[in-house]
Design brief:
Elements: E1 2-6, E2 12-16, E3 19-23, E4 29-33, E5 37-43, E6 47-48, H1 50-59, E7 63-66, E8 72-76, H2 84-92, H3 97-124, H4 130-143, H5 149-170, H6 188-210, H7 229-235, H8 239-252, E9 261-263, E10 270-272, H9 274-289, E11 291-292, E12 302-303, H10 304-321
Parallel strand pairs: 1-5, 2-6, 5-7
Antiparallel strand pairs: 2-3, 3-4, 7-8, 9-10, 11-12
Helix pairs in contact: 3-4, 3-5, 3-8, 4-5, 6-7, 6-8, 6-10, 8-9
Length: 333
C-alpha cells in the first residue's frame, strides 16, 4: 500500500481507468494503481476531480487537506466504517474509571518513550542529563498516584517541559530552540515538530475511523470543538518515537538546513519550504514503513503504520470489554 503526498500548488488529481493520475502545473505527469492507494494528503492549493473524489469515497480512501505550512484543514471521508454500537460504548466510557486508567497507561508509556529517545541523543552527544531523566521518572511515578484526568495531564505537561529542555541540549547548534511553540512555530525545530504531529494525527485518525470508532470522542483530552480528541489520545505514545526521533535524525544528520525554512509576511512563524518539505515527508514516510518489534502482544515485526492500526484494534477491544487493561501502550527499548 502507498500514500500519496501532493505538496505542489496547481496539481490536479484524477482517475484514468484503474490508475490515480497526477498532473502537475509544470506539465509533468505521474500515476499509480488505485488499488495500492491507502490515503491522499494534499498540502497547498491543488485539486481533485469529481471522478477521483467519488472513487476515493467508494474505496474508503481518506483525503486530507493541509496548508503549505502544515496547518490541518480537514478531510474527505467515507461513512462506510461507522460502528454505531461501538461508538455508543465509547461515548458511555467517557469520564469514568476507564478513562483514568487508560490515561495513566498512555501517559506512563509516553514519558517512558521520551526518556528512551532523550537517552539515545544525550549518549550520541556525550552528555549526561541525569537531573532531567530523574524528573521524567518522578513524573511517571506521580501519574500512577493520580485520581483525575487533570492531574495526569498536569504531570504529562511537566514531563514534556523537562523532555524538551533535554532535547534542546542535544540539537545541533544552528537549530537551537527554547522549548515548544505551536501556533505559530517560532523556530525551525518546532516547525518540523508541528507538521510531523499533524501528519501523525492524520495517520491515527484514519486508523480510528476504519475501526468504526469516533475520532472526536476522546478519553484523556477533554472535549474540544472541531478537535479529534481520541486521535490526540492515541498519538501521545507515538510522538517521541516517530516524529521527534525523525526530526532529531534529520537535523543532527545534516539532512536539512536552515535555508530550507522561511518566514512569511502574511503569516507569523517559521515554515518549511518546498525542498525541505519533500525531504521531510520522504524521511517521515520511511519511518512509518520501518518494521519494529515494539508491541508486547505480538512476537513479529510490523511497520510503525501497522503498529498504529494494531493499537487502535487494542483500544476497540478494551472498549468492547469496558476494561482499559486490555490496552497495552507501546514502550520502546
Amino acid at each position: 500500500m502507498s500514500l500519496l503526498y501532493i505538496n505542489e500548488n496547481g496539481a490536479v488529481i484524477g482517475i484514468d481507468g484503474c490508475r490515480c493520475t497526477i498532473k502537475y502545473a509544470d506539465g509533468m505527469k505521474r500515476s499509480l494503481p488505485i488499488e495500492s492507494l491507502e490515503a491522499i494528503t494534499i498540502m497547498g492549493k491543488s485539486q481533485m476531480t469529481t471522478q477521483c473524489t467519488e472513487e476515493c469515497l467508494k474505496r474508503g480512501i481518506p483525503v486530507s487537506y493541509f496548508s503549505k505550512g502544515g496547518v490541518y484543514f480537514g478531510r474527505l471521508q467515507s461513512t462506510g466504517h461507522i460502528n454505531v454500537a461501538r461508538q455508543r460504548k465509547q461515548c458511555a466510557l467517557y469520564d469514568t474509571e476507564f478513562s483514568i486508567k487508560l490515561a495513566k497507561r498512555i501517559i506512563d508509556a509516553k514519558l517512558r518513550n521520551q526518556s528512551v529517545v532523550l537517552r539515545r541523543y544525550e549518549k550520541s552527544k556525550g552528555l549526561q542529563l541525569d537531573e532531567i531523566q530523574k524528573m521524567l521518572s518522578v513524573c511517571r511515578a506521580k501519574v500512577f498516584r493520580c485520581d483525575s484526568i487533570p492531574e495526569i495531564i498536569g504531570y504529562e505537561g511537566q514531563g514534556a517541559k523537562y523532555y524538551f529542555k533535554g532535547l534542546a541540549q542535544c540539537v545541533d547548534k544552528p537549530f537551537q530552540f527554547k522549548g515548544r511553540s505551536r501556533r505559530p512555530p517560532l523556530d525551525e525545530f518546532n516547525s518540523m515538530l508541528s507538521l510531523g504531529y499533524s501528519i501523525l494525527m492524520n495517520e491515527v485518525y484514519c486508523k480510528i475511523e476504519t475501526k468504526g470508532l469516533n475520532p472526536y470522542f476522546g478519553f484523556m483530552h477533554r472535549d474540544a470543538e472541531k478537535h479529534p480528541t481520541l486521535a490526540s489520545d492515541l498519538m501521545e505514545e507515538w510522538r517521541a518515537i516517530i516524529v521527534d526521533s525523525t526530526v532529531m535524525s534529520m537535523i543532527n544528520g545534516h539532512e536539512i538546513a536552515l535555508d530550507d525554512f522561511t518566514t512569511r509576511l502574511d503569516e507569523p512563524g517559521i515554515y518549511i519550504q518546498k525542498n525541505g518539505l519533500k525531504k521531510y515527508l520522504n524521511k517521515l514516510e520511511k519511518k512509518l514503513q520501518t518494521s519494529v518489534k515494539y508491541l508486547s502482544y505480538i512476537d513479529y515485526a510490523v511497520s510503525f503504520r501497522k503498529a498504529i492500526q494494531l493499537q487502535v484494534n487494542q483500544l476497540a477491544k478494551a472498549i468492547e470489554m469496558e476494561d482499559a487493561s486490555f490496552y497495552e501502550p507501546v514502550r520502546i527499548r
